[in-house]
Amino acid sequence: MIETPIIKLVLAIVAVLGLMVSGFARIAPAAQADAVYFNGNIITLDAAGSTVGGVAVKDGKILKVGSSDEMKKLAGDSTRLIDLGGKTVVPGLIDAHCHPMETIYLKEDWVDCRYPETQSVKQALDNIAAWAKKTPKGEWIFVACVSASENKFVEKRIPTKAELDAVAPDNPVVLANGAHLCVVNSPALKLLGIRKGMTKLPHGGSVILDKNGEPTGALADAQADVPNNPTLADLERYYTKSIQEFWNQNGFTSLLAITPAAALPVLQKVAMSKITPTIRYTTSIWTSANDKDMPEDLSKFHMPKGTDPAWYRFGGIKDWIDGENDARTGYMCEPYIGHFDTDPPGGHGTLVTDQSGANRLASIANKAGVICMFHCSGDKATDIGLNAYEEVIKSGRPGTNMRIEHFGMFQLTDAQLQRAKEMKKKGLHVSVQPIWLLELVKADYENMGANRAHTGFQFRSMIDAGLEPTASSDMTGIYLGNINPFEAIYAMVTRDSDKGKFVPGQAISVTEALKMWTIWAAKSMGEADAKGSIEPGKYADMTVLSQDIFTMPKENIKDVKAFMTIVGGKIVYEAK
Question: Which DSSP category does 322 fall into?
């Protein structure tokens, strides 16, 4: 074709129009970001350790990260532009081991006898007596004390059955000394069918007897044997409002929610509703403290067809191998120091699930392709959990995430650390609760002695061994302040405890501590491809901090708050 001046002009116009159309396509509504967050100090925690100024969000996921100017170029007329004001932003925090339903129930409906507000048995009994006066005859009364109250109350003990009878003679009373030991009164013993000489309850609890074989009122690890009575309406409110608000305002965007099987239908109903959630639920289901009620077929625990897995998913199953060392029920090789009237026989703690039961539960989870979670507090219990996972590994079946909950929190041997390091390659993950440094070290000294106490809370050693420990709150409603992840980070970085500086050589960095609440937590849940870092394709979940946690004096980290919580690219909490 001969290009005349007219034809050349037409071709030039067509080329320009093509470029314009191409340009319009790049910023067409279909490609525009729904939101752009800019002017931030955004710590992505990606593999390269990148820090960026802005994040673009599309359809609830991260579209792109980069400089503020680059991200603004992705904005269109309908894009929300959010100025972060230079604040530090981290990936949305993940609470990878918590009991949200129980937390709200205890927070709202139990008599509050928690230390330090309640400092004595006398004050606790006064609180219970006042509650009993307004409670109808025959109605259950539940009382919340923190764990190791016997180490904290001025009397150096917890209330007795006789004292509970005196202040609430017409009501069954359950006084929880943490989550693994309780004292009940005579009406409660009668309703629970506990008789002289009875030592075990159907779902894993143990009955403490006196020298004549009479129940003292103390029950160990009876959480599945003592009734919990939130109404269905209460449960629905917890899952649609209270839980989300409580965790969101502390910077959390995802939970691994340890959920009783009896409460699961309510969450399944909520998952099918049109209510827009503000937190992501992954469930770990338990049926009883021991393994006996766990079915081989886990299909009924899955979320209903049509549920959005971005918000609700069935993740795993949980079982208790033992109690907890702060309640002197953690199952240990060597006995506890001294004797309390509430101690299980023998002084070594409580075995809730034996080796064969643990092997069975691990096998069920592995065959179903879900997480197995073993609660292991004492060193002997930890061996049982590791043994069960070794059997799974030997079976040669495809690996799933195998978790030890509370790994090495109270005590950890070199042999167990080495075993865990080897098993990490086969799918082992460990969960820890660092805020307990601020609450339970003193009790550890009193219950186990300095030598054993010094082997706990070895976060530096765990990280150096490549275990990538996941941090969590283990919120049950016992210590309401444990919801605060920044106090936990402060404890890990400074090694401050309720007994002063505790083994300072086990301190870790702020970045490592944040990984425990984000990317390592996501890995332990099998969800690292969707959350845990700020990268394209992952959920647009972010936590904006009130202060720069990386540059401030580490002693002040405990004062940091969540300034803003962003889930799916939307602001779900903002500090006043």
Answer: B
Cα separation, 571 vs 523, in Å, equals 25
- Residue 7's pLDDT is 45
DSSP, collapsed to helix, strand or coil, labels residue 365 as helix
Smallest CA-to-CA distance from 118 within 159, 173, 165 is with 159
Structure confidence at residue 29 (pLDDT)? 58
DSSP class per residue in 204-217:
S-EEEE-TTS-EEE
CB-based contact 43:87 (threshold 8 Å): no
317 forms bridges with which residues in the sheet?
285, 372
Q: What is the pTM of this model?
A: 0.92
- Terminal-to-terminal C-alpha distance of the chain: 70
Q: How many other CB atoms are there within 10 angstroms of residue 443's CB atom? A: 24
- Tokens 């995430």 belong to which residue? 401
For residue 116, cis peptide bond before it (omega within 30 degrees of 0) = yes
- The DSSP secondary structure of 419-468, one letter per residue, reads HHHHHHTTTEEEEE-GGGGGTSHHHHHHHH-HHHHTTS--HHHHHHTT--
For residue 42, list its beta bridge partners. 52, 89
Which residues does the chain have with pLDDT short of 50?
Answer: 1-3, 5, 7-27
Structure tokens at 394: 């030997």
Across 383-399, b (16+ Cβ under 10 Å) vs e yields bbbbebbbebbeeeeee
pLDDT digits 0-9 by tens, 9-19: 444 444 444 44
From the number of C-beta atoms within 10 Å of its C-beta (0-12, 13-18, 19+), residue 294 rates as: buried
Eight-state DSSP code of residue 238:
I
Q: Which backbone phi and psi does 505 adopt, to 5 degrees?
A: -65, -10
Residues with Cβ < 8 Å from 528, sequence gap 6 or more?
519, 522
Cβ neighbours around 496 below 10 Å, total:
21
The 3-state DSSP composition of the chain as helix, strand, coil percent (nearest 5) reads 35, 20, 40
**Phi, psi dihedral angles at 134 (to 5 degrees):** -105, 10
Q: Classify 156 in phi/psi space as left (phi over 0), alpha (psi -120 to 50) or beta.
A: left
The backbone region for 253, taken as left when phi is positive above 0, alpha when psi lies in -120 to 50, beta otherwise, is: alpha
Q: With contact defined as beta carbons under 8 Å apart, do 477 and 261 qualify?
A: no
Report the DSSP beta bridge partners of residue 61: 58, 539
> Parallel, antiparallel, or unpaired for β 215-220 and 206-209?
antiparallel
Sign, CA dihedral 258-262-266-269, equals positive
Amino acid identity of residue 133, one-letter, is K
Smallest Cα–Cα separation from 375: which of 411, 322, 417, 428? Answer: 322
The number of beta carbons lying within 10 Å of the beta carbon of residue 499 is 17
Look up residue 83 and give its amino acid.
Answer: D
User: What distance in Å separates the CA atoms of residue 3 and residue 525, rounded to the nearest whole number?
Assistant: 65
**How many Cβ atoms are within 10 Å of 299's Cβ, its own excluded?**
8
Residue-level pLDDT at 303: 97
Alpha-helical segments (H) within 149-231: 149-152, 161-167, 186-192
pLDDT of residue 49: 96
Are residues 328 and 355 in contact, defined by beta-carbon separation less than 8 angstroms?
Answer: no
Q: How many CB atoms lie within 10 A of CB 2?
A: 4
